[in-house]
Amino acid sequence: MFEVEYEWIGHAMELAELAEATGDVPVGALVVWEGQSIGCGYNTREAEDDPAGHAEITALRRAASAMCDWRLPNCDLYVTLEPCTMCAGAIVAARIRRVVFGAWDPKAGAAGSVRDVLRDARSNHRVEVIGGVREDECAAQLTAFFRRQGKKAVGRVG
User: What does the pLDDT look like over 67-85, one tens digit per residue?
Assistant: First the structure.
């Protein structure tokens, strides 16, 4: 099964490149249902002046539209960076089954680093989490972006 996660994170990394091309922090995400991508996204905060313009939010919105339902209980989300608190809340609300991510975010991560919103026992839904898939590659993508911007890599802050 690890080969599948490896491949989907690769697709998310390609989406992250699209974010970088528009001046956004390179984060890409996609929602998979029964082996097919049903919603994808990348960061658009800078391009769209949208504080909620995170890759995960866009991917969830597109997946919900494709499924004609905001509940996505049989879907998995793949993302290049550990989700932040906002995105983790949306993931829980959508009832996503599993989140697989690349790089850990020690500044704003909400899937085990700083917080663990996805697996919080007080929540109405808990999400399976697999972190660190292609971690070095995903982290390198982010680090290279911040170096080109002349900034220190600090998770989603850009």
Answer: 999 999 999 999 999 999 9
The residues near 157 (Cβ < 8 Å, ≥ 6 apart) are: 107, 108
CB under 8 Å to 14, separation ≥6 — which residues?
28
Q: What is d(CA 103, CA 138) in angstroms, rounded to the nearest whole number?
A: 5
Q: What residues form DSSP beta bridges with 40?
A: 30
Q: Can you spell out the DSSP letters for 94-128?
A: TT-SEEEEEE--TTT-TBTTS-BGGG-TTSS---E
Cα atoms found within 13 Å of the Cα of residue 16, Cβ hemisphere only: 28
Q: What is the pTM of this model?
A: 0.93
* Nearest-angstrom CA–CA distance, 38 and 78: 12
- 8-state DSSP, 131: -
Catalytic sites, residue numbers? 56
The DSSP bridge pattern shows strands 28-33 and 98-103 to be unpaired
**Separation of alpha carbons 148 and 88, rounded Å:** 28
Alpha-carbon span 150 to 2, nearest angstrom:
35
